[in-house]
Design a protein that fits this description.
Number of strands: 14
Number of domains: 2
Number of helices: 8
Shape: globular
Strand order of the largest sheet: 10-9-8-11-12-13-14
Structural class: alpha/beta
Strand content: 15-25%
Order of helices and strands: EHEEEHEHEEHEHEEEHEHEEH
Mean pLDDT: 94
CATH class of the largest domain: Alpha Beta
């Protein structure tokens, strides 16, 4: 007996990524399938897919960030519930698309008696029934090894580089710390710019507290671009910007993939010496977090290309020329 089957793609969106999912669907030329995600009075999450997904290739988009009154933990739990629903509905393959990987910074033990929560998150999705994981600019490349299955690590670099190339000549790409030098070097090569590094140190025992100490590289009279994977409380970026201005930088732009913008971030960025702040829409940025200096770029085309490649069983790495593995 021989049966010829036709693959079907279903794209679902969690409540933390509805706008981004709509843009992804637009680039794919499809519509987001209704997931009917709701909340019981007790706070428990429920979902029931509007259509059959039996034998389908299912992609579930949910970023792990705070939205409205829903926390990062709510986002992850909702994502897991949707994966479980797809598995129990006999989906052939389930790909979790998490533009921002929750708990990605807890990828190792930096002190005793700490968890490795990034590994726990990967384990949870594996147990829930995810076949594949797609994320953008993971905080650490080693997270790819935490998930027991294929991981597609996408880069926002093409989107950011295209935008930053319009800042003019005499650019200097600046790494805000030693850990981001490799990434900053890639941006510098693409922008045909020089490279500088801000030397900093974290204050032991105090979370989100850093001290910018010095700049390695020539920034006087030049347009500087600070590159990082995320802006959380904005302490690192703002201190680095202050130091660059002290060293004579003409303009300072902060560019990051993920605009987390926690706690004092918005006030710090508004009142900083930064000329502009460029982020992508991996995390939804509500009107209360938007300000004059902020520029938001979309990563929907990159995610759409990756989803198409996964669905068609072609190379995701070729989208980035293999640089997403370097």
């Amino acid at each position: 007996m021989e049966v010829v089957t036709t693959k079907k793609l279903h794209l679902f969106a969690g409540r933390h990524s509805e706008e981004l999912a709509d843009l992804i669907a637009e680039h794919l030329g499809i519509k987001v399938t209704e997931a009917h995600v709701s909340q019981f009075a007790s706070g428990e999450t429920h979902c029931r897919f509007a259509e059959s997904v039996r034998g389908s290739d299912v992609f579930i988009v949910q970023t792990h960030g705070e939205v409205d009154s829903r926390s990062v933990n709510d986002a992850i739990m909702e994502h897991l519930i949707m994966v479980d629903a797809a598995r129990r509905a006999s989906a052939k393959r389930i790909t979790v698309v998490m533009p921002f990987y929750g708990y990605g910074r807890q990828d190792r033990k930096s002190e005793g008696r700490e968890p490795i929560t990034a590994r726990l998150v990967a384990d949870l999705f594996s147990v829930a029934g995810a076949s594949r994981l797609v994320s953008i600019d993971l905080h650490s490349g080693q997270i790819q090894g935490f998930f027991n299955g294929p991981v597609d690590h996408l880069l926002a670099m093409p989107v950011l580089v295209r935008h930053l190339s319009g800042l003019g000549n005499d650019l200097v790409v600046v790494s805000p710390d030693a850990g981001r030098v490799k990434v900053a070097e890639r941006y510098a090569q693409r922008l045909r710019a020089d490279l500088a590094i801000v030397h900093k140190r974290r204050v032991s025992g105090r979370m989100n507290v850093v001290e910018a100490k010095d700049v390695v590289g020539e920034v006087t009279g030049r347009n500087c671009v600070l590159i990082d994977d995320m802006i959380d409380t904005a302490g690192t970026i703002c201190q680095a910007a202050d130091l660059l201005v002290e060293r004579g930088a003409l303009t300072v732009t902060a560019a990051a993939t993920h605009g987390v913008f926690s706690g004092p971030a918005i006030d710090r960025l508004k009142n900083s010496v930064l000329d502009r702040v460029v982020v992508t829409d991996t995390l939804p940025i509500g009107s209360e977090k938007q300000f004059d200096k902020l520029e938001i770029l979309t990563v929907a085309p990159i995610i759409a290309d990756a989803i198409r490649a996964v669905f068609e069983d072609t190379s995701v790495s070729s989208i980035f020329g293999g640089q997403n593995h370097s």
